[in-house]
Amino acid sequence: KLAVKQKPLIKLNTAAGLLKGHNLYLTPLESIVKLTPSFQHIDDQAAEDAKLNEKVDSGVQEIKAVTRRFSSQTAKVETPEKKEMWTPCDYREPEHPYSAGQKRSIIGKGSTDGVKGAELSKTEYLLRLLPEEADVVYVAPPLPSTVTGFGELRKLPPPKQVETILRNAKVISYKEISQFLPSIPTEQVLTALQEHAYLVQGHWVVNSKVIYPEGSKSSLTGVPAEVMQRHRDFIMWAFFRHPTIKRENLMKIMKIPPEEVVEILQQVSVLKAYNGWTFKKEYDPEFDYNHQSIMISEKRKWDQLYDALHVSLHLKNHKQNELLRFRVELETSCSVNPLISEEKATEIITRLNLMESIDATSLADMTIVIQEHIREASCRRDDVITLMSQFVPYDQCSLLLHEMTEEMGLLVCGVIDKDGSTVPVICFKEPGCTSDKFRPTLLQLFSSNYKVSKAMMKEAIQKELDCSFTHKDYQTLTGNMCTNAGKATSWILKLNDIPDIVRL
After folding, report:
1. Distance CA 61, CA 56 (A)
2. Could you tell me which of 440, 443, 441 has the C-alpha nearest to residue 416?
3. How far apart are CA 205 and CA 198, in angstroms?
4. For a 10 Å CB count at each end of the chain, is N or C smaller?
5. Distance separating alpha carbons of residues 28 and 118, to the nearest angstrom
6. Pairing between strand 452-453 and 31-37?
7. 341/489 Cα distance (integer angstroms)
8. Residue 246 forms beta bridges with which residues?
9. Phi, psi of 407, rounded to the nearest 5 degrees
10. With contact defined as beta carbons under 8 Å apart, do 412 and 431 qualify?
11. Distance from CA of residue 503 to its chain's centroid?
12. Pairing relation of β-strands 410-416 and 171-172?
């Protein structure tokens, strides 16, 4: 037996579906019925047998004779037969003349040419009743005018193929577009990408001129193409600088309708709660590493584009905006003298054979950027290497940092992290503070301890330097190099974070 359990549906938007060919058949469900095997009848029968056995075991019952009388079954059958009216019939063989006449009487009079149904064979008659399923040819609907099929795409010139894919994809990696266009040489693909797209976070984003051609207007609000190009370029520059931006910071600069800003953001990013708009794809260093010259060229293109946007969007009035903070700091830091002179930079570049990767001016400017991020605190060595890879090939960064350590006045040592492992960090020996002479001793303490107390500092300084350590020195040293560990006199080393990608 099957036990039935019925469960009513709380929501009425449930349906059962069947996919047959290209058609989907849906049937609404009002309830769900569950059938499960049940052996209750066996248990009941077993219980009855047990009770019967108990009665039998309790005592022998007296056997009594039983007499049963049965009514006549023949009378019950004969009575309906007598009441039923019977029609007498004569049987004749199919070949008998009378039979042939009866067959002709049920067929229409006249010629049989128009009565094709009477002349069908058994096979034909069955086919009429159950016709064979005809092969249905499904014709795909025509593509919209804005979408190009692969068949049509192959007929276009190589640069136009790249432009078409960029227009439809909006954001695509070099690896993905190479898979779409395997027959086009790499040089032609790279040339077309630089012409019709921007390099953002290691991926290619379609150029604003492709989205908004000259002389056109936005289909959403009718804003002229020239205005849309400038504002979209600024949004792309913001994503080039950092993978996450907040719309509230954008709207302080944007002069186009909010719905236009949202549409641009939706093309290249996704909205994450409490975080803002995040670029669709994570940063991919592979392209930057394999195509250093293109990466440097794209950075110069972004610098030129920012200079133009600085004038057209009046960015000088938004220096406090979070989106422009790093750029303003960089412009301010340009007044600071580089830590390495151009003559020394030229000597290092020549010695390391980096003439094709970086020039002396860029190397000197790189020292300013490093100084701005380390300041009076410390940075992980790996983060500094990542920062330097924005200027020179990654595989040359370690050797270059080693060459510049003494020239820049850097101090490199290993400290203990929270997990107990050793992490190499970098800081300046003398950033210009009154507590500079205590910095090496403090780093020596952190090389063997994750947390350091005031008493440990005082004891080590007196032992190593044999000098006084005033309360003012203590406050200055811990304020620049340490972070409070939860207790008043317990400290951990302060490590400044450097963004994965620093856009200049």
Report:
1. 8
2. 443
3. 5
4. N
5. 45
6. unpaired
7. 41
8. none
9. -65, -35
10. no
11. 23
12. unpaired
Residue 183 token pair: 């027959």
Residue 468 identity (one-letter amino acid):
S
- Answer yes or no: pTM beyond 0.70: no
Contact of 235 with 264, CB cutoff 8 Å:
yes
The residue written with tokens 């049965």 in the block is 70
Tokens of 418: 């929270």
Contact 321, 251 (CB under 8 A): no
| Mean pLDDT split into 10-residue runs, the chain, 504 residues | 68 78 82 79 82 66 60 59 75 84 72 55 77 58 52 83 90 90 90 92 92 91 93 92 86 91 93 85 80 79 86 82 62 49 82 78 76 76 82 81 82 86 85 76 88 88 83 82 76 73 41
**The total number of residues written for the chain in this structure:** 504
Cβ partners under 8 Å of residue 474, min gap 6? 454, 457, 458
Give exposure, 313-333, as e/b (b: 16+ Cβ within 10 Å). Answer: bebeebeebebbebbeebeee
Amino acid at 410: L
Distance (Å, rounded) from C-alpha 19 to C-alpha 417? 57
Joined together, the tokens standing for residue 105 give 């009487």
Which two three-digit tokens encode residue 459? 């004891």
Distance between CA 139 and CA 147 in Å, rounded? Answer: 18
